[in-house]
Amino acid sequence: MKLKKLIESLEQWAPLNYQEDYDNSGLIVGSPDDEIHAALVSLDCTEQIVNEAIEKNCNLIISHHPIVFKGLKKLNGKNYVERVVMKAIKNNIALYAIHTNLDSVATGVNAKICERLGVENTQILVPKSGILKKLVTFCEHKDAESLRNALFAAGGGNISHYSDCSFNLEGMGTFKGDEQSNPTLGKAGVREYANETRIEVIFKVQDERRLLSALFENHPYEEVAYDIYALENKLQSVGSGMVGELPEEINGTDFLRLVKTQMGASVLRHTDLLHKKIKKVAVCGGSGSFLLKNAIAAGADAFVTADFKYHEFFDAEDKIVIVDIGHFESEQFTSNLLIDNIQEKFPNFAIRLTEHNTNPINYFI
């Protein structure tokens, strides 16, 4: 199939505008019009992974971490990033990354960690803002219902677990067309008065083009009157980290044992265990120290993440147990998450999990 068909599916799940500013998710090497016949999935994209893709006749590599974070000024193979890109291009292998956008969705990386740990009743720890907009338009009362339905079908009016959400207000509108106009109501050159309905719907930024297409295709007026407002509201289903509860509270030692076993960690770094049992748990795949204050504010008893620096452990201040399991360890099951999603959408497409452990960190135990 065409690569763009798979990309559309992945980005419907984890839209690119959900990624952080520093990130570089998306298609890094290749064309959306490339024909793909098999894909290799891994956490990282290294030379070893490209070689494996060549051996297994995969012309697409899907990784969680982008191989290119910063702009490349030269391609002469002097470092592993340049060598990976060069080898992929030479062997007609497309490279696609799905990173912090997959971290941010409610069914993404953090949901997988919660699933592994048995954390239930989950919600986003820090919901993301800047994703929602509001469309306001006006039409005659008689056309309002059909126009609302068209906007709903295009993705408007979805708020959390609710759909078909809108606000409607009836009022009087005026207009006067010039000699070149062809008004739906009244005559050119005459001021007309129309009983109109003001329709307001919230939508996600990535749905704007689709929503406007539905508006223009279904609005009866020659000139469509509409406004779009950027909202500061936070989208509760998108954001950083996740928090939830264990089925039953357990003591600190048992919790550490659970984390080590379920996350396949060789070693755990953690703060002092507190004199209370653990019930509420916050998680963040990858580097999550920036969310410590949010985890404490959410009332979490423990915070499972990675990449805490020495002095950052002091910030727990006996309010929470920090459990640093390692960056690779916190995200290693992301590959399985990706494969499950792709197989569900494209059951006949060849998708393979890498056989290589790309963790650059080794432990001497």
From TrEMBL:
Q: Where is a divalent metal cation 2 annotated to bind?
A: 64
What is the protein name stated in its UniProt record?
GTP cyclohydrolase 1 type 2 homolog
Q: Which NCBIfam families match?
A: YbgI_SA1388
Give the organism, scientific name.
Answer: Pedobacter chitinilyticus
PANTHER family according to UniProt: GTP CYCLOHYDROLASE 1 TYPE 2 HOMOLOG, NGG1 INTERACTING FACTOR 3
Q: Which domain of life is it from?
A: Bacteria
A Pfam family found in this protein is: DUF34_NIF3
Going by the UniProt record, its keywords in alphabetical order are:
Metal-binding
**Subunit organization:** Homohexamer.
- Membrane-crossing ranges are none
To which protein family does this belong? Belongs to the GTP cyclohydrolase I type 2/NIF3 family.
- Which residues does the annotation say bind a divalent metal cation 1? 65, 103, 327, 331
Q: Which SUPFAM superfamilies match?
A: NIF3 (NGG1p interacting factor 3)-like
List cellular component terms (GO).
cytoplasm
Q: Which GO terms describe its molecular function?
A: metal ion binding
